[in-house]
């Protein structure tokens, strides 16, 4: 039987992908989940899949780590230093090549040629590594997660204060729920025909923060004011409102200012069905139940 490997199996995306693989009929015994911290594997152990230590930030990650894997979900590193991140990615590709892995689904970044964010170059470089290796592939180019742009804590804070802050200059945003990406991962790992393809996996309907403010008002039943201002002023306002920890999310907004989020594609809708793409309003409804 085909062995499917999932790097970062204990992370939110990895675990969700494994759950969807099983929902699609993959036998747990045919799934190998790779972890960094064994203390986080309890839930996966209950599913009955094989678990292996596989920390690709460490030199010990090699072809033995990936032995017997046919199809690999390569979830990109969260390392902040881009050169270190590339070294980690090269370690995975080298190990996969030497281990005889026949296929890699790589979770990159949507429209990397159209962003000013440095991470775009990291993902493009990794895609070229995979192509240069000769291993068959699907490039799963993801936008930001809804849960990052609209975290539960942030939404609760906005409802409490009646304000939502934005550092996007009113441009379009494109983000998708993490579980929708997990569904897409499971689909390409189990369905022939996606080999050799590069998929731009974003929403086919971008949003503005004015749309988000409207959804927040509608769902919460309270008026939510949109405040558009630079990150430095947001930091001062958040501090005055008693929240110093949310600034990270607003710093991410600047990545949209070049218009990157306005790009759309039907690839995700074609993969999982347009009606199955979670809208920001649905996410807010889940948070405020």
Order of helices and strands: EHEHEEHEHEEHHEEHEHEHHHH
Low-confidence stretches: none
Shape: globular
Q: How confident overall, as mean pLDDT?
A: 92
Strand content: 15-25%
CATH names the topology of the largest domain as: Rossmann fold
Strands, count? 11
Our measurement of the CA-to-CA distance between the termini, rounded to an integer number of angstroms, reads 42 Å
Largest sheet, order of strands side by side?
Answer: 3-2-1-4-5-6-10
Number of helices: 12
What integer value in Å does the Rg equal? 20 Å
- Helix content class: 40-55%
In this structure, how is the largest beta sheet organized? 7 strands, parallel
Protein name: NmrA-like domain-containing protein
Pfam family, one: NmrA
Organism: Secundilactobacillus paracollinoides
Domain NmrA-like: 3-242
In short:
With 289 residues, the protein is α/β, with parallel strands linked by helices. It is built from twelve helices and eleven strands. This is NmrA-like domain-containing protein.
Could you explain the architecture of this structure?
This protein has helices at residues 12-23, 42-47, 82-99, 119-133, 146-149, 152-161, 178-190, 209-220, 231-240, 247-253, 267-272, 280-287, and strands at residues 4-6, 31-35, 50-53, 71-75, 103-109, 136-142, 144-145, 163-166, 175-176, 197-201, 225-228. The chain has 289 residues and is an alpha/beta fold. It folds into two domains: 4-142, Rossmann fold; 147-173 and 204-262 and 278-287, UDP-galactose 4-epimerase, domain 1 (Alpha-Beta Complex). A seven-stranded parallel beta sheet has the order 3-2-1-4-5-6-10, with helices on both faces. It has a two-stranded parallel ribbon with strand order 7-9. A two-stranded parallel ribbon has the order 8-11. Helix 1 (12-23) links the parallel strand 1 (4-6) and strand 2 (31-35). It is globular, with a radius of gyration of 20 Å.
């Amino acid at each position: 039987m085909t062995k499917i490997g999932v790097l970062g199996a204990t992370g939110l995306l990895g675990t969700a992908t494994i759950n969807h693989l099983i929902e699609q009929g993959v036998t747990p015994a045919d799934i190998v989940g790779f972890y960094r911290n064994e203390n986080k594997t309890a839930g996966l152990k209950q599913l009955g899949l094989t678990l292996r230590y596989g920390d690709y930030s460490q030199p010990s990650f090699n072809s033995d780590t990936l032995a017997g894997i046919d199809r690999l979900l390569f979830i990109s590193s969260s390392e902040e230093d881009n050169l270190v991140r590339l070294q980690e990615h090269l370690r995975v590709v080298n190990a996969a090549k030497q281990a005889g892995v026949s296929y890699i689904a790589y979770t990159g970044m949507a429209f990397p040629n159209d962003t000013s964010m440095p991470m775009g170059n990291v993902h493009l470089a990794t895609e070229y590594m995979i192509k240069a290796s000769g291993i068959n592939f699907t490039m799963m180019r993801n936008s930001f997660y809804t849960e990052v742009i609209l975290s539960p804590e942030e939404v609760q804070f906005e409802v409490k204060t009646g304000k939502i802050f934005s550092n996007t200059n009113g441009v379009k945003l494109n983000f998708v729920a993490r579980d929708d990406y997990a569904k897409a991962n499971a689909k390409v790992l189990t369905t022939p025909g996606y080999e050799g393809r590069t998929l731009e996996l974003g929403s086919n309907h971008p949003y503005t923060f004015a749309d988000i403010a409207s959804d927040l008002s509608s769902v919460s039943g309270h008026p939510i004011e949109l405040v558009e201002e630079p990150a430095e002023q947001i930091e001062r306002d958040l501090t005055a409102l008693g929240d110093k920890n949310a600034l990270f999310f607003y710093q991410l907004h600047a990545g949209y200012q070049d218009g990157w989020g306005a790009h759309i594609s039907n690839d995700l809708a074609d993969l999982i069905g347009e009606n199955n793409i979670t809208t920001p309003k649905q996410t807010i409804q889940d948070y405020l139940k």
